[in-house]
Amino acid sequence: MITRNKNIANLKAGYLFPEIAKRRREFAAANPDAKIISLGIGNTTEPVLPHINAGLVEGARKLGTVEGYSGYQDEGLPLLREKISKVFYNGKFSIDEIFISDGSKCDIGRLQMLFGSGVKIAVQDPSYPVYVDGSVIIGAAASFKDTGYAGITYLPCTAENIFFPNLDLIENNSLIYFCSPNNPTGAVSDRAQLTVLVNTAITKGCIIIFDAAYSEFIRDSSLPKTIYEIDRADECAIEVNSFSKPAGFTGIRLGWSVVPKALKYAGGESVHADWSRITGTIFNGASNIAQAGGIAALDDEGIKEMRALTDFYLTNAKLIRETLQKLGINCIGGDNSPYIWARFPGKDSWEVFAQILEKCHVVTTPGAGFGPAGQGFVRFSAFGHRADVEEACNRLTDKLSI
Ligand code: PGU
User: Fold this and answer.
1) What is the best residue among 242, 283, 313 to mutate for testing ligand 1's pocket, by most ligand atoms within 8 Å of CB?
2) In three state form, how does the secondary structure of 28-97 look?
3) Per-residue confidence band for 125, with pLDDT thresholds at 50, 70 and 90
4) 8 A C-beta contact, residue 48 and residue 247
């Protein structure tokens, strides 16, 4: 018989969100009358808004016509790539530096092929679990200990450092995962902090994978929405982003990666050329219908709709944050991001998760699932229907005294 890829055996337990879904199902089975509300996984709930939806419908209609039909699109429809460069990067990138994908999670997984199993990894702790689990699958990290995986440098982001890590911990020649606005803490790094990040990467010969999936939730105009607002970031950073959260495309699937031509490996080879080679070989592009929706999302009308949708979720976030604060629970995030990171000092976060589920019938995400420094925290997601969020807030107010 064929043997198992031993990297897979190194993965710790199951992936976080299916594990939470399992606990929710178990609770629902034991409490059939409970009306459970999810503030757990960051999954969008509101309908796609009309202009963007019309773009999707039109994209599907055209496929049924001789003139409008399209097949494989390699790295993505040129018009979409051009609009992404213009809307998000002020036209800084040529269209061949923008690679359209079926979402940023998929790109995060595929990008690791560029660096292989020998690479050293640095991640914010806590962080979106795909960075760590993807590193384990590719063989860059193994042998889980209570404090994390060997091969990964965890960069604690704590209340004490206001959720921006000590970059001195990063080893030379590392691949750095960095997410801002951050999942799960909701913290957004400012220009000075990202400047230090870029300078550190350049000095230490590192490459940053910058995850900007929540950039459209930034309302404070002094905060950078992309790493490329920082000088020389194109020499050291790849950026991943997505239509999932701002346009409600979580199920439609559309994202992109920016791989600048200026980015080089230690030997001077082009990262861009390798990424073209990899995506051309193992990825056949995002759905043309999704791409038509993405083009509509980047029209003036579509941009207004994305603003309205993100405003809606930010209002949910404000309701949740204010509810928690009134209960005396210390929290951050939710102002320029859809996540609120709530602190329960001295408590086990899976225990707090269980208590909130039992008392309030509200699903959250335990902080420890995002890394060792997430212990003692719980993440609340602002993605939900308004009535559900209001009901969840009422229940938290009435029943939560942890
Ligand atoms: N990057 C970050 C930082 C995310 O939080 C998420 C989704 C993604 C990428 C995925 O984006 P796509 O473009 O849709 O692929 N995080 C959610 C959903 C959980 C999951 O497994 O992706 C969350 O609750 O953290």
Assistant:
1) 242
2) HHHCCCCCCEECCCCCCCCCCCHHHHHHHHHHHHHCCCCCCCCCCCCCCCHHHHHHHHHHHHCCCCCHHH
3) very high
4) yes
C-alpha span between 103 and 256 (Å, rounded): 7
Residue owning tokens 């308004």: 386
What ligand 1 atom has the least distance to the C-alpha of 43? Answer: 18
Chain segment 325-359, per-residue pLDDT in tens: 999 999 999 999 999 999 999 999 999 999 999 99
In this predicted structure, the answer to whether residue 132 has a pLDDT above a threshold of 70 is yes
- Give the Cα separation of 374 and 123 in Å (integer): 13
Which residues are near ligand 1 (CB < 6 Å)? 17, 41-42, 103-105, 128, 179, 183, 211, 213, 242, 244, 250, 255
Query: Which helix H or strand E contains 325, and what residues bound it?
Result: helix 300-326
SS3 for 379? strand
pLDDT of residue 36: 96
Is there a contact between 239 and 257 (Cβ–Cβ < 8 Å)?
yes
- Cα–Cα distance between 210 and 229 in angstroms, integer? 12
Q: How many CB atoms lie within 10 A of CB 162?
A: 11
pLDDT digits (tens, 9 = 90+) for 357-368: 999 999 999 999
Q: With 70 as the cut, is the pLDDT of residue 402 above it?
A: no
* Distant-in-sequence, close-in-space partners of 277: CB < 8 Å, separation ≥ 6: none
